Here is the input.
Amino acid sequence: MPSTSQGVVSFHKEEPVQIVEIVVPEPGPYDVIVTVEACGVCHTDLHYRDGNITDSFPFLLGHEAAGKVERIGPSVTEVAVGDFVILNWRASCGSCRSCRRGRPWYCFNTNNASKPMTLSDGTPLASALGIGAFATRTLVHEGQCTKVDPRVPAKAAGLLGCGVMAGIGAALNTGQVRRGDSVAVIGCGGVGDAAIAGAALGGATTIIAIDIDPRKLTWAKDFGATHTINASEIDPVEAVRALSNGNGVDLVIDAVGSAATYQQALSARDLAGTVVLVGVPNPNERVELSLIDLFGQGGSLKSSWYGDCLPSRDFPALVDLYLQGRLPLDSFISEEISLGDVEEAFTKMQRGDVLRSVVLL
Ligand SMILES: NC(=O)c1ccc[n+]([C@@H]2O[C@H](COP(=O)([O-])OP(=O)(O)OC[C@H]3O[C@@H](n4cnc5c(N)ncnc54)[C@H](O)[C@@H]3O)[C@@H](O)[C@H]2O)c1
Ligand SMILES: [Zn+2]
Ligand SMILES: [Zn+2]
Here is the structure.
């Protein structure tokens, strides 16, 4: 029998979200119903609401979540009822061309639930990143559930499901930070601060936080930034060079994703340095590149999808680091809110008032 849930739905581009009743279908093969306990508000939810990802409205938002397995469909073997899980949007399929070449962290065809959740009139909902967790319960594929140590509070665990994993992975997996490296992070929201934490875990000795909001720079120090640059006051490229003997840094992580910040990232790296783009650009952004400069600079330009993570490998390890006091997940949480506060949380995010608002259910 289908069940119902309360969910936060975005019906029209750039219009306020609404809480409505949604229908969760009977779980099909490999499907799992999860009772959501906590779900962080990520900038990508706002990108969906603003029509920057696709225009397949209506969207059921929320994708940075943890909860308990409530029901399982036929053939489910990876999780059992009662398991505490972090939801992920990389349930590697095992059979796409990337998985078959041993690179499941790029999986081009990740698994999702076998059927969509719907509005009560039957209209199918597109779930944000195939999850849809601003909802009391949600339907996902079993591979989207990563079982972790239940001693981690849901509000901290859920953060690993998107922004924190994306940031840490941008530094450690995509950027391959090594002991002694110099790293600059442009944009110190949840994702950027996680990249700073990742650079610190990887042994970077210079970690430069760059933002246009001084509050964000204060918070960035809590995650391991050794220097801060307010890009609304000084030229961040010159400031990075001044902090690196005029050379630029080994790795620049762009956690904003605008043409302006990407240009800064290109110019702030050392010879043979790396740029990692983890911020999601708006579709109209363009950068102009000098091909000879690109050649002369060497190094590599990479994009980081979900921090090139493998949830089964990375989530349990990061939970262990949290439980050992070596990863300050609680410091990302600016406020605990309810489902009805998501629209206001978007406003606070745009104003820079919060790192993460976390919906508790
Ligand atoms: N690649 C991925 O897999 C992935 C995963 C999650 C989120 N994201 C994306 O990462 C980006 C950041 O997400 P978030 O949740 O941290 O957002 P956020 O809004 O909390 O943080 C963005 C930060 O960038 C700063 N900023 C804006 N313009 C700037 C500029 N010109 N120079 C310096 N700093 C500037 C803001 O002050 C803010 O602190 C978003 O685009 C989001 O969609 C990507
Ligand atoms: Zn695959
Ligand atoms: Zn996200």
Notes: Residues 42, 44, 63-64, 162-163 surround zinc ion (ligand 3) (CB under 6 Å). The chain has a mean pLDDT of 97. The longest helix spans residues 311-323.
